[in-house]
Amino acid sequence: MTTQNGKVAKLNKGSWDIIIDIHKFNEEWIKECVRVLSDTGTLWISGTLHNHPSVGVVLKKLGLWILNDVIWFKRNATPLLSTNRLAPSTELIWVASKTKKYFFDYETAKKLNGGKQMKNLWEINAERHKTKHPTEKPETLLERILLIASKEEHTVLDPFMGSGTTGVVAKRLKRNFIGYEINKEYFEIAKARIGVEQPTKKLTDYLERSKNGHDKQLTMVMEKNGKYVKTKKKVLVK
Prior knowledge:
This protein has 238 residues and is α+β, with helices and mostly antiparallel strands.
């Protein structure tokens, strides 16, 4: 159970969230990501308590370099109605690579942190969802990851695209984007969001925002346009 608009609501994410053997599933999809990952690329895998121990084991089993465990702290996290445990307010993000030649923009991370070395505890508030997808991530979080882990014209892959937030941010930062989504309804939402014409942003825009001490999000207008192709089992946004 969780809360919605201050009221008790059932936590039903849909059939896509029902997996019989989560560890086997994690190993299969992470292995496929590693297969297409460049030698200079990195994997960023976000999850909560029910999943991140399995992800860590799989990363070690596949022989990847585990670079960081980023703790995303949500100060404004949704309250827990149950009184028999602590209210969860964090998600863990595993960062891993295939080789030691991975790209990591240390100087950009430092600039984004006000000139100081960025640590692995990121305090980024949860935000009101722009779509109906239940696990939509804040654009602010994706912006930070893509600015640190990629350059303009690099390709970003999201195997669980959802409502397309990663693609929206990638396009804004002039990155190429490939996304997979098995749910047709969410695919249509992602296609619409990614297809919207929007001003691109550069690092200087984020440094200015950081200097001012606030994060303003662009309002995404939902329009049914943008190019897409369908594959046999999944749908792919370019």
